[in-house]
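Q: I'm building a small set of examples for a reading group on sequence design. Run inverse folding on the following structure and report the sequence directly after it, with nothing in between.
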């Protein structure tokens, strides 16, 4: 689970979407949309956003696991 400081109700909503568990249909695109929100607000790196983009069509893929494998996050 990724944690980002939420400063608004919108941030809290997007955080819930960002942390949607892998598996459900369209969960990948929901995570990517939330990742774009945080990227545009300077709270997510371009490298991590790219992983969310790659994983957005792979509903069963966990972008956090991919980010750890790629060394983008610890």
């Amino acid at each position: 689970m990724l944690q980002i400081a939420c400063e608004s109700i919108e941030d809290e909503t997007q955080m819930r979407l960002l942390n949607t568990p892998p598996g459900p249909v369209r969960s990948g695109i929901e995570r990517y949309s939330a990742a774009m929100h945080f990227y545009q607000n300077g709270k997510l790196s371009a490298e991590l956003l790219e992983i969310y983009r790659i994983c957005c069509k792979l509903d069963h893929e966990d972008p956090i696991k991919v980010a750890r494998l790629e060394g983008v996050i610890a």
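DSSP finds four helices and no strands in the chain.
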